[in-house]
Amino acid sequence: MICVMPNITNQPDSLLIRQAEWLSRYQYSLRLSEQGTVISVGDGIAWINGLPSACMDEVVQLEDGSSALVFHLAHDRLGAILLHQTGQLTAGTQAFLTGNRLSIGVGDALLGRVIDPLGIPLDSAGSISFSTYRFMDVRSPPIIARDFVAQPLYTGNKIIDTMIPMGKGQRQLIVGDNGSGKSTLAIDTVINQHEKNVYCIYVLIGQKRSTVVSVIETLRRYGALAYTVVVVAEATAMPGLKYLAPFAGCTVAEAWMAAGRDTLVVYDDLSTHARSYRELSLLLRRPPGREAYPGDIFYLHSRLLERSTRLSAKQGGGSMTALPIVETEQGEIAAYIPTNLISITDGQIYFDRQLFARGFLPAIDVTRSVSRIGGKAQHAAIKKEAGRMKLDYLQFLELEVFTRFGSKLEASMEERIKRGQILREILKQDQLSPQSVEFQMAWLVAYNEGLFDNLDVNQIRAHLMHLQKQVTNTRLNIDQGRDQWKALIRAWLK
């Protein structure tokens, strides 16, 4: 046998070493490859005969150029979800194993880009050059690699930053009916990360194209697209891509977290994701469970959200904060998917349609919202000023019920009700207008000092706008003494 050696006289030293190592390991042997055949294809699923060595989550390459992911193993065939489908894919097409797991390109090259769950750009900014790839579905960081949530992540929302605080590395569920303002809050949170050194990933799952375009244009208009990656699997996409979308966004964020950066991931929304997974499972003839969802639907979302955490200093100290969104029907928070996600996450922000109808925006129901670990990450000054405000506000909501019966109340009760009405007016906030933490501190001090008590409820908005303008024009530090805050705010509201 004649062996033709490549010309290596002018090759770099590193290449010579690699070639020498390859030659030292090379062995003459019989090489075998498996070949399967597509039995049927439809609804984003391909049934393949053959390929006995196939593994779960292995990428299968089809003869026509299509690709699929092994998702179901039976004794006589395998089911694969299509990732890319050409018009020539039919029964009888040959299939080949690649031995590869599904991965996606990661890195700073993704900032400002719109991609699909496979990392293919959907915008008009050209191709993306990746230097690093990561597997999409991996295990979450072990306990010893994690650290406590101790740094605040500000959303710019008055209610959340004061009464339902969030920390970097937290998983906070946003739950409510369709059209109640859940996505608006998520977009506000992304916009509020401007100049805060937080990279954002916004995952759109099964949304209409008009919604996708609206989100992208909003982020671009407010300068948030520069530090954001948008992962899109729109409503017309194959169910396999909708299933992979949140894992793709999580993988992109995980790469930055491993590099020591702080990240924020929005999953909009996991209700659609669960329905896509149910569709795939039923098409693959898996046994249905409650509400026809497969039995591992809880594991599906838990293995996704458990990857969000704050890493220890030895691991770089990065963090991934997750804002999963889930939709309810008629405010039924005890439905199957919402209760699953509530048990997985570290708290929930509940949007109430009745509050929305009454004009209280954002329509966050404080009585049903909670942040289990965010209080430990809240800034000490904000935490001290907020104090018992949430409890007082809840008591006001109960006392207000008695006013509907026209009963005469004591003077102290009337005073508490008036302060509660003032606080409710303060907590109202327009969409796409996140507030700075300095302004949050300013209105808290003003409210606690009773500087709004003598005002009519209709005057609160004007005074808040004046206060916000003064805070914006003045260089303030949230750590400065409370007496300084009091003096400044009294002068501004005089």
UniProtKB/TrEMBL annotation:
Catalytically driven reaction(s): ATP + H2O + 4 H(+)(in) = ADP + phosphate + 5 H(+)(out)
State the encoding gene: atpA
In chain numbering, the residues marked as site (Required for activity) are: 369
- Enzyme class (EC, first level): translocase
- Where in the cell does this protein reside? Cell membrane; Membrane
Mind listing the GO molecular function terms for this protein?
A: ADP binding; ATP binding; proton-transporting ATP synthase activity, rotational mechanism
Alphabetical list of Gene3D superfamilies matching this protein: 2.40.30.20, ATP synthase alpha/beta chain, C-terminal domain, P-loop containing nucleotide triphosphate hydrolases
Domain ATPase F1/V1/A1 complex alpha/beta subunit nucleotide-binding: from-to ranges: 156-371
Protein name, UniProt field: ATP synthase subunit alpha
Kindly give the membrane topology term recorded for this protein.
Peripheral membrane protein
Domain ATP synthase alpha subunit C-terminal per the UniProt entry, residue ranges: 378-475
- Organism, as annotated: Nitrosomonas supralitoralis
Please give the InterPro entries that the UniProt record associates with this protein: ATP_synth_asu-like_sf, ATP_synth_asu_C, ATP_synth_asu_C_sf, ATP_synth_F1_a_nt-bd_dom, ATP_synth_F1_asu, ATPase_a/bsu_AS, ATPase_F1/V1/A1_a/bsu_N_sf, ATPase_F1/V1/A1_a/bsu_nucl-bd
Q: Which GO terms describe its cellular component?
A: plasma membrane; proton-transporting ATP synthase complex
| Keyword list, A-Z | ATP synthesis, ATP-binding, Cell membrane, CF(1), Hydrogen ion transport, Ion transport, Membrane, Nucleotide-binding, Translocase, Transport
Q: Which SUPFAM superfamilies match?
A: C-terminal domain of alpha and beta subunits of F1 ATP synthase, N-terminal domain of alpha and beta subunits of F1 ATP synthase, P-loop containing nucleoside triphosphate hydrolases
